[in-house]
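Here is one chain, start to finish.
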Amino acid sequence: MWDDRLPGWDGVSYLTIKSVSIALVYWREVYSGRYRGGGPNHWHTLKPRWSDWKKVALRWNQGSPQQFWSRFSDAEGNHMDYTTTLRAIQDDRRKDDEEQVKRAREEYGSRFDKVFTYRKGNTWHVLTKDVDIAKKYRSLKGGNTSDSD
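Its structure:
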């Protein structure tokens, strides 16, 4: 459902245009008004839900369906509902970010404040949020940062 270029694409999507299923990865373009019928208010309204679906879809595509459901099922093997699955994915990501931050601080030591920075106007600031530090660390290590919106 996320990307029609992935092997798991099954041609099914909630958004269809002239009977053609539109993968989630393209929804921003459709709902931002880059094409006739969309507009900025559409995207502003839809983006939070789209971001949640993106998290689930990216996690789904990290492995097999069996791997996904082994993580997101209860002790009896019942699949978690969407909201519970989303919360678990967010918790997993938060924990992973915390581990990445710890590695970054250990690896970069005294250079951390020079490497993990961002520019605001003419001033450089040190990153403080785990999510931002982890994203920068993954980028430096050549890892996947495609989960940003």
